């Protein structure tokens, strides 16, 4: 008798044979018959193709039996059949836990049907994406239909104006689906991007107390997300991503129509236009949703032909390309070259550019738009045909990859078993012809993408290179001729350069790289050597550049980048000549080379709002639960933007004050995101912390920055002095399935934040964190409540801790908690203090610091430590802090700033010190700090010769003697 798996490829036949008895220990069940499309041959084929199908048959036989009794697998999946099947599950729902269970069982049944029909080629692309999207629509609507009336019973019914008639009515929730869900093109295994909205402002009626409509819909939204996203013993329904909403993770979970319209009108970014192209009302009141979509249409589709869309899409594609290179995603059929994303970009570029004029383009499904572009003669028929065929092929392969284990992936398998499974699903006997077909489609897509969207190479052809550089690199010159050649071209140490080149050329890494890599290196090195002639000290610069070359020898894409982009090459050589610190950063993180491609952005770092937007875009598609990838991306973001700041300082486009501002903004943006990630991670496990009124906290947590961070004076290698506070009731607990005390929640939140910041990853450490300035130092709680923090500052804090508070400010977290801290800081700084006692305590602390950190007396004749020695920066800081603490009671306006520069200005304005002294002290402070910044870029410490800055040091000594050691009246 022929075994049912005998017709399969050998590697899969062996796999099925080995697992058959585990899947069917009692033989194939009677319900799995030919009549319902599940005969032994079909079962063997399904088990061969998908581990998910195998596991489902093995563990969930009863569920599958009920499913095929309701509808045989041979019949297509439709919205009607799914909706009817949900009614069977809904009959079992009596409370929220049973709703969660019913949705998850419904999901497993639907996934089994979806993946079976796709893998066995019973369904084509169109049925698969329609069924996946219909299931999502039905699941979201089902959860909302059940949760809305129960939430009204609990909190009251929200009332407000009807968006059409203006009459006072009960307000519905509108759920917008974005991305592939919005386009009705959802994958077999995908997360869903949602935005929650409601028609208008108002209040609830009929509840125990009145709630603002927004509070009601935020609470309902939280329940809806839990119903879909929370992982239980039955699994989950969908991973829900809310980061496409206005302001991303920091924005309110639900917004009124008016708030949404105002946001997109005033602040909407180009990438948000791109995202809104596919937006669709997937649940809630459709008529109200249509009013919202109509109001947002002018934001998406401009009345004029809008060619600016090309540039924004290029920027987005460049960002994706960097991500692909960084993560090695060339085998990703979505993000890699010639992948699904490039087809989407082509189509949506035309929608954004011409959609305002050509209304036929104001649709969502990609294949429909392609047809419209052909009919409008925007794309030639052969191009449309190739893009359509490639899109269907790539999406079918995406479903094949995801159907293997019901996982969201677009990466090609690298093992024989996985490759054979995918080939079989795609209709090929083996992997090689399947891969060839895939590569053919990707090559055609990449070509069309380059023709339509990709940037033209505006760089002029580089002039023919003198053959001498080639001969030099390949050691075809003798030593004497090589030294003479380098000397003639300005190399200050020709012999050292010859040795460095020989060491690289003879290194084991160069010896074993593949032929193509060697060819690229041999093309690149002569070009690089010639470029070195145009900077000062080319020999020294060469030694710095070679660190980078050694780092990218096996990643030849970077060599190609520098070879094909003269502008980037020029920037690299100049930056390495100016700063060994930058050279080391580039060698440690070669991905930063991408920043050299655009000289304009390299020397003009973005303001804080743009930084925030850039980080949001970069992190958009990384799930919060993927902590490792979040940490890697944050480290790259920080390094890339610090490189821009350093380049700008070296080029003279940023003065010192702005350098510190930008470095501080980078830290603040990173900290804000880290709080969001850590908070979301804990909420997914334990729910939201609760307030006394029963509502869920939206963080109630803040990070306080002290020292250089608090004073907006961060340097390139500064650590972060942080203090954590929260303003929640520590006696209450969270509202999740695994509740913990609020106090425990916030302690864990603090620990998670420190972990994310401190941990060493392949990209290094994000920031070194110092928590010693918290109440009671290292022996104190990691996170204090606001009342406990206030009590400590009023009753137990030392004078030096109030000095530190003068340079403290809120830098991330809940705005309400940050405002409460600022009021508290003001009150503490304005306390009455005895001037003589205060002066003594400040002077004593300064002497102790100088003794432990300053230059020993035996060495003071040779060096001056800019920061810690007499006449240095710390003297100025202590002097300013003393005056702040001594005079804020009489001049409360002094407390408004936390940075030394503006504090000095305010001290002069208030008359605490003469304006001319305040100005001169400020200029001295800037001069000394500028020197520390410049030395950091040269990898030098803060010690200079003892004869440096004599006038500045004398002036600081005089001011210290006059204010701190004199007897002037207060």
Automatic annotation (TrEMBL):
<dbReference type="GO" id="GO:0016779">
    <property type="term" value="F:nucleotidyltransferase activity"/>
</dbReference>
<feature type="domain" description="Glutamate-ammonia ligase adenylyltransferase repeated">
    <location>
        <begin position="43"/>
        <end position="289"/>
    </location>
</feature>
<keyword id="KW-0548">Nucleotidyltransferase</keyword>
<feature type="domain" description="PII-uridylyltransferase/Glutamine-synthetase adenylyltransferase">
    <location>
        <begin position="314"/>
        <end position="452"/>
    </location>
</feature>
<keyword id="KW-0808">Transferase</keyword>
<feature type="domain" description="PII-uridylyltransferase/Glutamine-synthetase adenylyltransferase">
    <location>
        <begin position="864"/>
        <end position="934"/>
    </location>
</feature>
<feature type="domain" description="Glutamate-ammonia ligase adenylyltransferase repeated">
    <location>
        <begin position="570"/>
        <end position="823"/>
    </location>
</feature>
<feature type="region of interest" description="Adenylyl removase">
    <location>
        <begin position="1"/>
        <end position="464"/>
    </location>
</feature>
<comment type="function">
    <text>Involved in the regulation of glutamine synthetase GlnA, a key enzyme in the process to assimilate ammonia. When cellular nitrogen levels are high, the C-terminal adenylyl transferase (AT) inactivates GlnA by covalent transfer of an adenylyl group from ATP to specific tyrosine residue of GlnA, thus reducing its activity. Conversely, when nitrogen levels are low, the N-terminal adenylyl removase (AR) activates GlnA by removing the adenylyl group by phosphorolysis, increasing its activity.</text>
</comment>
<keyword id="KW-0067">ATP-binding</keyword>
<dbReference type="InterPro" id="IPR005190">
    <property type="entry name" value="GlnE_rpt_dom"/>
</dbReference>
<protein>
    <recommendedName>
        <fullName>Bifunctional glutamine synthetase adenylyltransferase/adenylyl-removing enzyme</fullName>
        <ecNumber>2.7.7.89</ecNumber>
        <ecNumber>2.7.7.42</ecNumber>
    </recommendedName>
</protein>
<comment type="similarity">
    <text>Belongs to the GlnE family.</text>
</comment>
<dbReference type="Pfam" id="PF03710">
    <property type="entry name" value="GlnE"/>
</dbReference>
<keyword id="KW-0511">Multifunctional enzyme</keyword>
<keyword id="KW-0460">Magnesium</keyword>
<dbReference type="InterPro" id="IPR023057">
    <property type="entry name" value="GlnE"/>
</dbReference>
<feature type="region of interest" description="Adenylyl transferase">
    <location>
        <begin position="473"/>
        <end position="970"/>
    </location>
</feature>
<dbReference type="InterPro" id="IPR043519">
    <property type="entry name" value="NT_sf"/>
</dbReference>
<keyword id="KW-0547">Nucleotide-binding</keyword>
<dbReference type="Pfam" id="PF08335">
    <property type="entry name" value="GlnD_UR_UTase"/>
</dbReference>
<dbReference type="InterPro" id="IPR013546">
    <property type="entry name" value="PII_UdlTrfase/GS_AdlTrfase"/>
</dbReference>
